[in-house]
Structures are given as structure tokens and as C-alpha cells.
Amino acid sequence: EQLTLIKNMSYKEKIYNFAQLLSSNDIAGTELKNTEISSFEELVSLISSLDTSIENKWNIQLAFLNINSLIEELSSMLNTCVLELKKYDKELSKLTKDFTDYWEPFIEQNDILHFLTSSLNYDLGSGYEEIIVCHSILNPSNISFSLDNDNIYKNVIKIGVLFNDKFTIETRVNSNHLEVYQNLKLLGDKSKFDILVSIKDTSAYGQELSEKFNLSTSTISHHMTALINARFVKVEKKNNRIYYSMNKDILENFLNEVNNLLLK
After folding, report:
1. Using CA atoms, how far apart are residues 75 and 254, in angstroms rounded to an integer?
2. First and final CA of the chain: distance in angstroms?
3. Rounded CA gap, 169 and 142, in Å?
4. CA pair distance 156, 240, nearest whole angstrom
5. 238 in helix, strand or coil?
6. Cα separation, 130 vs 149, whole angstroms
7. What's 33's DSSP letter?
8. Distance (Å, rounded) from C-alpha 58 to C-alpha 48?
9. pLDDT tens across 166-223, in order?
């Protein structure tokens, strides 16, 4: 349905919505948040002002110029995914019900942002009138968020279905050795390790890390999600950007645990 709406948009509407998407992205600053763009020339000017490399600016412009074919490709991919998911409709419905039964009482009695801040070091600011919490089946071991003080409908937190109310993965709770092994495997990934070292003393946002390591912003986001879920990284929202920094206390505790398991 959303793809149909996009396809039926006028050229001017596509320009405007593409500009709004850019303004909410990590590569754009707060000053772009309420920018209204109505012509291709204005859109090019906006792209030129983004805090990113020349190559990325060119790729963003190409994405808009080829937006119709990209939408068709995306539509085909989504249709394939929907057909596959329909095969497991019964199982997915049960997961959804279990999630709702588990989380609804907790959310009614607790401040979800407080628990994110205290449990996962997500400093997401305040002033949100209403927050919608929903489940994530396709990313069962991830937590994602989209928060905007100016639009309550954008205040969404998605919690993977494997998480419990202590924000730990259910399958890890009773297996300390497994958790240590998984985190060692996590740190054994060169990109994740290099990113962690780079934010040891200075916080950075996604686009900075993307350019530093020559990785796409989506790849950086994937790595950061894994590091955040392991609690090795702190998250802080500043203006319109999400900054990452090393959680040294958690990392030190983990290394001490490894030392105790292997050497004592």
C-alpha cells in the first residue's frame, strides 16, 4: 500500500519527501529538519550541503534520478518476502501474541525510556508525549528507535521478540558461557573491533564512522546495533544525530569475566 502511494506521487511530492528523508537521516544536521524543497535544483543544492563525501552525494542524487526503477525493485523484493512470511502466518501470529502478553503489563507500569537508558545506555533525551512500542520479528535480537519531539507518530521503539524486560536476550539468560562466547565472536569481527577502538575516547555519529572506515551507513548501523545489544556501546541523541561511544565499564567487566573463566 505504501509503495502504491509512492508510485502515485507527483514529481514535486517525490522531491519533497526525498528531501524530508534526507533531513531525518544521520548525514543531515538539525538545520535541515524543516526544510521545504519543491524543485530538483533545490534538492541538488540540499544534497550538496550534506555532511558527507562527494561520492555519497552523487549516489544520493542518482538514487533520486532512478527512484521509479528502485521502487519497482523494492516492490518486487517485498512481495517475495511477504509470500515467504505468509507460509509461517500461524507461527508469526503466536510470536506477536506472546510479545503483546509479555510486554503490555510492563509498558503500562514502567517508563520505557528510563529502562532503555539504565539498561542499555540509550540517552535519547526527553519531551516525548507518547511512545509507541511494537515488536520486531525480522530482527528478533535488535532494538531500534525512531523518536521525534515534533511528531508523536514517529515516536516508535521496536523491540526484538527475543528480549525480556531486563533487555537481555532470553536464549542467553541461562548460559553465561554462551554469552561470553558470543561476545568474543562479536569482538573477533575486525570492523566491529576497529569501530569500538575508534570511539574509545571520542564519540562519533554514523556518517563519521561510515567515511572513516569506508563502509555504508547501513553497514555501520548493523555493526553498532550488535555492539549496543552487547552493551559495549553507549548511545546519546544530540539534536538530530545519534552519537556512539564505548561503554568502558561494561567492557572492563566482560574482560574480567573472560579472565576469570580462562585463567582462574
Report:
1. 43
2. 59
3. 9
4. 16
5. strand
6. 9
7. T
8. 9
9. 666 554 433 467 778 888 989 999 999 999 999 999 999 988 898 899 888 878 888 9
Which string of DSSP letters, residue by residue, matches 116-178? HHHHH-EE--S--S--EEEEESSSTT-EEEE--TT-GGG-EEEEETTB-TTSSBGGGTT-HHH
Beta partners for residue 241, in sequence order: 238
Asked if 46 and 92 touch (Cβ cutoff 8 Å), the reply is no
pLDDT category of residue 12 using cuts at 50, 70 and 90: confident
User: Do 144 and 158 touch, CB atoms closer than 8 A?
Assistant: yes
Report if pTM > 0.85: no
Is 29 in a helix, a strand, or coil? coil
Q: Look at residue 3 in the predicted model and tell me its pLDDT.
A: 67
Structure confidence at residue 246 (pLDDT): 94
Cell of 16: 519533497
